Amino acid sequence: MFIIKAIVRWLVLSGAVVLAEVLVPGIHLSGTVWITALAVGLVLGLINALVKPILSIVSIPINLITLGLFSFILNALLFWATSYFVPAFTITGFLPALLGSIVVSIVMWIEHLIF
Description:
The chain is mainly α. It has one domain (2-114). Helices cover 78% and strands 5% of the residues. The chain has helices at residues 2-23, 33-50, 52-58, 60-65, 70-85, 94-114, and strands at residues 27-29, 89-91. It has a two-stranded antiparallel ribbon with strand order 1-2. Helix 2 (33-50) packs across helix 5 (70-85). It is globular. It starts with a helix and ends with a helix. The model has no long low-confidence stretch (mean pLDDT 96).
């Protein structure tokens, strides 16, 4: 059951990346779009599972000072970092990374509500 749930989350995350590319100028998937999106979904999922918890704990003081708004910046930086690991995925600046991470977060929130 866990494996099926993980695969569904990966596919939804990959679809959210494609949606972010469609909605946000400055995010580009080159090559075969769905294969690139699956790679981005895998890398982003791993970054969110392994790196994000550590950075969230370290950034608690600044998150308290900004009343939680720093978590948006952290999500954008991790989304942007994904573009360094997947060469066919490019983000042209911080604002597209921020908007793209918001799109992906909203889609994943809806997925969490459904499943």
